[in-house]
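On clarity, I found the account of how folds are encoded harder to follow than it need be. For illustration, here is how one protein appears when written out as sequence plus structure tokens.
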Amino acid sequence: MTLTIDSSNASSTFNYADVANSPEWLALKAAATDLQQLQIKDGSVLEAGDHCAATALIATITASMDALAPHFPHDARYLELAVADFNKWVTAGLGVPDFLDSLLAFNPQENRIDGLGHLVVFPMYTQNGSTSRFVEAVLVETLWPEFIGELEAGSYSNKLFVPLRFIDFTPGYDSNSAVLFPESVSVRETPTFTWGAIFQDREAARFRRVVRAAAEVTRLELPADAVELLENQSLTQETFIMWDLIHDRTHMRGDLPFDPFMIKQRMPYFLYSLEELRCDLTAYRESVAVEADTSASPEARKHAKLVQYAVIFDRIFRFAITGTRVRNYDGLGGQLLFAWLHQHHVLHWTDTKLTIDWAEVPAVVIALGQEIEELYWRSIDRPKLAHWLAAYELVSATLTPNPASTWAKGPAALPLTAPLREITDQVMDDEFPLSMFYEALDKKMRAVIDSTAGITGTSAA
């Protein structure tokens, strides 16, 4: 995309995709990739014998950033401080890197302009990619369709949400990671986080590939608008932006415990399943409302219908069988949604063919969301352990627990007077195993799901 930018620092017309082929970016990408081989998990360069090579690679990175900076005038202060953070890292002896100063200066949420590019370089881990805080670099473009701006300015305000698409990246993002979060950056102290970015092109591309294959395997006949969704990358990206806009803002809204995520607390993984599913089902419910709202724009209403397909298909076809069976909370949420739809007789697996009664689906999906919301509302007056037990009861009412489960035997089998961590330890890694349907589907879909690692909107085209 060619974009004209007016800022206090510069005015430029530039095709950001061209950066990916520039000598400066290629040098930066190669140097960062080589530097990763010298770093250990915490981001430091431990071996003194590697310091000379690391210093030379960092010099290439910073020179490239300086050369590319004029194309990103809206990020001038961030790029300046990032170069300074690299230099301070070298001067300090290449210990654990600290990029707090540059992180605080990077504020993509302040310029949500469709097509606006960013050059992002930090020592950081990549969720669902590398857990090491290596130096990673990404070239990205902002995605901000007009109808999303209208929704965000109205009932779905979310000032922290930044939707992106990949242009190019270093190895940490040649993975399943589809997010760029400030909390992943190596810093000396934890700041207040003011943005969170999601790579909508990756979400859309893997959704299209997986759902096309799953529909073929299950012989599911798709509605015409769902077919259009799978055939159009741009349309799917925009659909995922709307879904994530609403999902992301839901985490701290509603009748909730003080912190529904219970950050840095060890607790049964099915509670994370319910929180993520609650946010997705809220996005579903609100999309049903937007679709029916005659005052909403035609684009918003069209995408609202598509969000409903996206939530169901991504949850039941990809989430349920992606990743390991070790405390897979997203997988559990997908299993729960499928079983709920099946047991409420709007999803049918008959004669080895999947059918869905689309007219009846919204009421059934919204009812599951209401069950979770009731659980949360009651939790305000419950002790934590009582909430955990009620949450388990909600899930196990629909999904069959592992026959070896202690939790499935009921409260009398649990060490209720022990510290909560001991009760959490009684939850099996695969407390709710895959059903026979999903065991068979997993075997047929595994290669397809694995093939989506590193996918982008461009590579999927």
Observations:
- Strands lie at 2-6, 11-15, 117-124, 134-142, 161-169, 179-180, 196-199, 347-350, 353-356.
- Residues 121 and 424 are 38 Å apart (CA to CA).
- The chain has a mean pLDDT of 94.
- The chain has 16 helices and nine strands.
